[in-house]
Design goal:
FAD/NAD(P)-binding domain, 30 strands, transferase activity, flavoprotein, 5-stranded parallel beta sheet, Rhodanese-like_dom
Length: 551
């Protein structure tokens, strides 16, 4: 009888095992999981993180999957067997194929490996952190990293710690969206999270200051900056740190993750590897009609890869039998902030050979009737084909709009949808409304009715001597509360009446509003009246990072 052994500590491996058994009941499937003897001794936010990533034993039993709890696992590919040490002793399980879930983890610098208060993250047995925190009672945690570090903020805050987030360079989001994430985290944590921007500091340049007992008491950036804490969480760089990488034929890509083929095969015959420790970056040249490549292996994409492996091993024939490189959702949550990234960022799109264009929209609070639930959305498309390449969205965790928008964008990208098609679809709910608006803005940009200009580009152009007429469309109260120096104020509701007398005809116009929504509407109106040199401040004053003039 054909036997498939799945070795996994997470949800993806268990999903793969149960799916194989469902699609091919004649195959014997064994699922090897950690014994978990220490679990259950402590309950807390980190223990709940472990539980949320595990499948129930009742489900595996219902699928007739044999579950073996192991304290040690070794592979013998010459004999095609897995050697498992369990409560029943040492078991030798023969296999035809083996599926292994490998999680990425941070590689600690040599200077930090002996410190007892430095935690590499993700940590496989992270439930032990609840006990450690309750016993040692640290006051401040320092979290070093980017998108992976974001998921640590919520459990640390729930555990009673204050947090310093040392944000390092991370290509998961564009720079303007990182600014949004940083502000949202700071605002929603009521001052308990402090963000230190060290994105221009090389990781190799970070210098730990050690206490007499060998623990780390602070980190220095090599240029005068320093952050102190009681416990340090290290999330960079993410590497595949698993004994399987020593097997002949298992290769790592330049980033330190395991390289696999379209069926997730790697190394010895019969070995399939899934998980965040696998490199699934797909950046081929532009292919008409092909799905947008995926460059982020978030939880959703890992689960999708598990389904691909299960389909292949169960003999399923169809478009889902091999990895197509479609965009998976990379989702980060922390301090009541949810950030989702799908497909390509602007930089990733350029590397892939596209000529990208984007629309950046910060939703109006009135759209939701709740001032605490704004959503920021960035859509990226190809200028030539107009096909949607990616999206980034940031929202409050409680409003659920980030997930709603991400789900809609994921379907659109999987079908290689153009922004024109996206702009005429009818979406339900507030999340659909902001997606529709952003797609319409991007469609108008591609027709060259107006251009977007970022805050950085506007400042650089002004410093270079460019002559703009900056027209602020907010009401007079908002304008007096803070506006760009030299900006001229005409409220949007008065624009039609005052346009002819107060707006110059032959000077490039930069339209400014609170969230850029009204500015885009005004740009379409002015274009219809014959204006051609129109620019919209992307993101509006809500995302303006420089000093303003009041009064």
């Amino acid at each position: 009888m054909r036997r498939i052994v799945v070795v996994s500590s997470g949800l993806a491996g268990a999903k793969a095992a149960t799916r194989i058994k469902r699609l091919a009941p004649e195959i014997e499937v064994n699922l090897v999981v950690p014994s978990g003897e220490e679990q259950g001794k402590e309950s807390g936010p980190f223990a709940r993180m472990v539980e949320s990533r595990q499948v129930s034993e009742a489900l595996t039993e219902a699928r007739q999957v044999g579950v073996i709890k192991a304290s040690e696992v070794q592979f013998d590919f010459e004999q095609s067997q897995v050697n498992v040490r369990s409560q029943r002793g040492l078991l030798h399980i023969r296999f035809n194929e083996v599926v292994l879930e490998v999680e990425a983890s941070a590689r600690l610098p040599r200077s930090l490996r002996a410190a007892g208060n430095v935690v590499p993250w993700p940590l496989e047995n992270c439930f032990v952190l609840d006990s450690w925190i309750n016993e040692t009672r640290p006051g401040r945690a320092v979290v070093v990293g980017g998108s992976v570090a974001l998921e640590l903020l919520a459990p640390l805050l729930e555990s009673g710690l204050s947090v310093t987030w040392v944000r390092t360079a991370d290509a998961a989001y564009d720079a303007d969206m990182w600014d949004v994430i940083e502000r949202r985290v700071t605002d929603s944590s009521n001052g308990r999270v402090v963000v230190e921007d060290w994105t221009d500091v090389r990781v190799e340049a970070l210098v730990p200051v050690l206490a007499e007992d060998g623990s780390v008491q602070s980190l220095q950036d090599g240029r005068g900056g320093e952050v102190a804490g009681d416990v340090f969480f290290w999330t960079i760089p993410q590497r595949a740190l698993h004994p399987i990488i020593a097997q002949p034929g298992v290769e790592l890509d330049p980033s330190g993750l395991i390289a696999v083929d379209s069926h997730f095969r790697s190394g010895p015959e019969g070995l399939y590897i899934i998980g965040s420790g696998v490199s699934m970056s797909r950046l081929p040249g532009k292919t008409p009609g092909a799905p947008v490549p995926s460059v982020a292996m978030g939880e959703a994409a890992v689960l999708a890869s598990a389904r691909v492996v299960a389909n292949h091993l169960a003999g399923f024939v169809g478009e889902n039998a091999s990895w197509q490189g479609v965009a998976g959702v990379f989702r980060s949550c922390g301090a009541d902030v949810t950030a989702c990234k799908l497909g390509l960022t602007m930089d990733e799109a350029r590397v892939a050979g596209f000529e990208p264009e984007f629309a950046l929209l910060h939703s109006s609070a009135a759209l939701y009737g709740n001032a605490d639930a704004p959503v920021t959305l960035k859509l990226v498309c190809d200028k030539n084909s107009h096909v949607l390449l990616g999206a980034q969205v940031v929202a409050r965790s409680c409003c659920g709009q980030a997930d709603t928008i991400a789900n809609s964008v994921s379907v659109a990208m999987a079908s290689s949808m153009t922004v024109e098609r996206l702009s005429v679809l009818d979406f339900a709910g507030a999340g659909g409304e902001i997606l529709h608006r952003a797609a319409s803005i991007l469609s108008n940009k591609l027709m060259y009715r107006f251009y977007g200009i970022s805050a950085e580009e506007l400042m650089a152009s002004k410093e270079a001597g460019a002559n703009f007429f900056m027209l602020d469309l907010r009401d007079n109260v908002a304008w007096k509360g803070g506006h760009i120096p030299e900006a001229y104020n005409i409220p949007y509701t008065q624009l039609k009446k005052r346009l002819q007398d107060e707006v110059p005809r032959f000077t490039p116009i930069v339209l400014i509003s609170r969230s850029s929504d009204a500015a885009y509407s005004a740009a379409c109106q002015l274009f219809g009246l014959g204006a051609t040199d129109l620019y919209v401040l992307d993101g509006g004053m809500d995302m303006w990072p420089y000093e303003v003039m009041k009064g």
